[in-house]
Amino acid sequence: MRESVNMDVRTVLRSLQVHFPALLEVRYLAERTWLRARRQPFDHDFRFLSGIGFASDEILIDIGANRGQSIDAMRLYHPRQLIVAFEPNPNLAARLPHLFEGDPKLVVHNVGLGDASGEFTLRVPCYNGWDFDGLAAFSFGDVNLSYIRSSIMGFDDAKLNYKDFRCPVSQLDGFKLKAGFIKIDTEGFELRVLHGAIKTIQTHWPILLIENSSPCEVLDFLGPMGYSEFHFEDKLCEGRGFRNTIYVHAGATRLAR
């Protein structure tokens, strides 16, 4: 019952936002301030980072940085670690250095990651002038329209459109980063990101947190390398998560389970 009520409240709030887009920035700022004051990550799954010990030169990598939610979560538990973030949306990427002004150990790249270098079209769904930037995707078929339709009361197809950005795309391997942790949330592009990161993965065996867009395919890719699936329930537990899955290599030494 409580979950149903929470979902109804979120639907009402989201519906208000799309009719009054200025509320969106107010909401994000208020939510970020509240979470930082309570020292909580935006997503429960990031709490597992509190039990991880990284070497001082290992890098935390955020692929699909969006509005910096994951950067806040990483920084909460690892205030002195270098974070390298990748965000293809030029509007969002431009905001991140200002949002984290004064953080000398954050590097932001306005580039997407995939399995080959080139240029792709990033499609951002918009409703009534409000960008659903968290649902932006390189593959048009991966834009989650069912989520948008179900989360707005009185949804009107005539108010739905798209913004397209031509974005550079590179391979993570080209950056030659000593990865300790990689978070990937790329709306269906996750497997292609992994293919472009295979040298980085096989060199450093980082812990990965990946959104469950295609978990079976991800496990087929990572499993033969020695990775296993975990999820977080106040501690790391074996098995796939609900929204995200944490992948840990069999030889990992960073982990306090």
Task: Give an account of the 3D structure.
Helices cover 32% and strands 25% of the residues. The longest helix has 18 residues, at 2-19. The protein has 257 residues and is an alpha/beta fold. It has a single domain (2-249), classed as Vaccinia Virus protein VP39 (Rossmann fold, 3-Layer(aba) Sandwich), CATH 3.40.50. Mean pLDDT is 87; it is low at 1-7. It has helices at 2-19, 22-38, 69-77, 90-99, 145-151, 190-195, 198-204, 215-222; strands spanning 59-63, 82-86, 106-109, 112-113, 118-127, 130-131, 160-170, 179-184, 207-211, 227-232, 236-238, 244-249. The two termini are 32 Å apart. The chain has eight helices and twelve strands. This is Methyltransferase FkbM domain-containing protein. Residues 62-214 form the Methyltransferase FkbM domain. Pfam families: Methyltransf_21.
Topology, element by element:
Blueprint: H1 2-19, H2 22-38, E1 59-63, H3 69-77, E2 82-86, H4 90-99, E3 106-109, E4 112-113, E5 118-127, E6 130-131, H5 145-151, E7 160-170, E8 179-184, H6 190-195, H7 198-204, E9 207-211, H8 215-222, E10 227-232, E11 236-238, E12 244-249
Features:
about 260 residues, alpha/beta, Rossmann fold, eight-stranded mixed sheet, 8 helices, 12 strands, globular, disordered N terminus, SAM-dependent_MTases_sf
Report the biggest beta sheet as strand number plus sense, adding barrel if it closes: 8 strands, mixed
Q: What is the overall pLDDT average?
A: 87
Tell me the number of helical segments per DSSP (H or I, 4 or more residues long). 8
Supply the CATH class: Alpha Beta
Strand content: 25-35%
Order of helices and strands: HHEHEHEEEEHEEHHEHEEE
Question: From the coordinates shown, what is the CATH architecture?
Answer: 3-Layer(aba) Sandwich
| Strand element count | 12
The helix fraction, in percent, is 25-40%
Class derived from helix and strand content:
alpha/beta
Poorly predicted runs of 5 or more residues: 1-7
Question: What's the structural domain tally?
Answer: 1
Shape: globular
Briefly note the CATH topology name. Answer: Rossmann fold
First-last Cα distance:
32 Å
Corresponding CATH superfamily: Vaccinia Virus protein VP39
* Spatial order of strands in the largest sheet: 3-2-1-8-9-12-10-11
| Cα Rg | 18 Å
